[in-house]
Automatic annotation (TrEMBL):
GO BP term, example: methylation
Catalyzed reactions per annotation: L-arginyl-[protein] + 2 S-adenosyl-L-methionine = N(omega),N(omega)'-dimethyl-L-arginyl-[protein] + 2 S-adenosyl-L-homocysteine + 2 H(+)
Pfam families: Methyltransf_28
Entry-linked PANTHER family: PROTEIN ARGININE METHYLTRANSFERASE NDUFAF7, MITOCHONDRIAL
Protein name: Protein arginine methyltransferase NDUFAF7
Protein location: Mitochondrion
GO molecular function: protein-arginine omega-N symmetric methyltransferase activity
Taxonomic source organism: Marasmius oreades (fairy-ring Marasmius)
Family of the protein in this entry: Belongs to the NDUFAF7 family.
Regions that span the bilayer: none
Keywords from the named record: Methyltransferase, Mitochondrion, Transferase
Superkingdom, natural source: Eukaryota
InterPro entries: NDUFAF7 (IPR003788), NDUFAF7_sf (IPR038375), SAM-dependent_MTases_sf (IPR029063)
């Protein structure tokens, strides 16, 4: 089992718990190897603490997916939840001359955001600039997908070659026997202005306190699909709302509500509100149910539920 960006280890712990329950039910013996792609030593310690409760479990940490060896005789399952949206990306603009790259420049100082008559404090100012001509990287990325040919002059494009490379590696790891789920912000299309910055779980200006904010951009799932499908089948992504409801969220919620309604009504209410938030949708795509997409990958040539068209 492989997880990219495993956070605190909660999701992997849940998956291992379910696998243990299923193997007991089927009276089968399954030996699980866990590979976690994580750079942070602090997060690795947190994951070790969470997963150490699973017993004699073989866990290997990797700084990069490239160090995970493919295995032809062991079935491989991969999970990437809110991993791809945090990867580096480029911003391009199409002109009559071709694709230019948007870079970041700065002036020495800028006026403070509000008048401060008694203060002489001035602030560094960051702003986007366009390269004067197409560059090798902007030309390469702007032609890296046939879908980009239809983008009109004057339009912008966010594209992540790092995401493409990792997705291609996923295909190599799973093609001889495996499956995977990628869950993230985004959809089955490219984006021009989805980038944003988060500080303390709130959206802030993109140039606010550089190095201290989390920068993200929506994931172009069609781009990931192009990277993987050379190796194995990839299913068209579903919205998170569609996926969770098809996988029995309602039935699971009813069971949890039944268990807690009498003993702890407040907890039952919190569970219900959390579940509804996960599947809520809105016409502008601003709710979690349609902000997130789920893409399935499988070495099986047949379609797999719930990715059946």
């Amino acid at each position: 089992m492989i997880e990219l960006g495993p956070g605190r280890g909660t999701l992997m712990a849940d998956m291992l718990r379910v696998i243990t329950q299923l193997t007991r039910t089927m009276k089968a013996q399954v030996q699980v190897q866990v590979h976690l792609v994580e750079n942070s030593s602090a997060m690795r310690a947190m994951q070790q603490k969470r997963l150490g409760k699973q017993g004699n479990l073989e866990i290997q940490w990797h700084a990069s997916i490239d160090s995970i060896p493919p295995s032809g005789d062991i079935y491989t399952m991969l999970m990437a939840h809110e991993f791809f949206d945090a990867l580096p990306f480029h911003v391009l603009k199409r002109t009559e001359e071709g694709w230019h790259e948007v870079l970041i420049s700065s002036s020495s100082f800028a006026e403070p955001p509000l008048p401060e008559p008694q203060s002489s404090v001035r602030y560094p100012c960051f702003y986007p600039v366009l390269t004067p001509a197409p560059t090798p990287i902007s030309t390469l990325l702007g032609t890296s997908s046939p879908r980009f040919q239809s983008i009109p002059v004057g339009s912008f494009l966010e594209v992540s070659p790092v995401a493409f490379k990792i997705a291609h590696k996923i295909g190599e790891l799973l093609r001889k026997g495996g499956c995977g789920l990628i869950i993230d912000y985004g959809g089955d299309t490219f984006y021009d202005n989805s980038r944003r910055a988060f500080k303390d779980h709130k959206i802030v200006d993109f140039f606010h306190r550089p190095g201290e904010c989390d920068l993200t951009a929506n994931v172009d799932f069609a781009y990931l699909k192009e990277a993987v499908e050379d190796s194995m089948p990839v299913y068209k992504p579903l919205t998170q709302s569609h996926f969770l409801q098809a996988m029995g969220l309602k039935e699971r919620l009813l069971k949890l509500m039944k268990n807690h309604r009498t003993r702890d009504p407040e907890k039952a209410k919190r569970i219900e509100e959390a579940a509804l938030r996960l599947v809520s949708v809105s016409p502008d795509g601003g709710e979690m149910g349609n902000q997130y997409s789920v893409m399935g990958i499988s070495s099986n040539d047949e379609q797999s539920y719930p990715f059946i068209e």
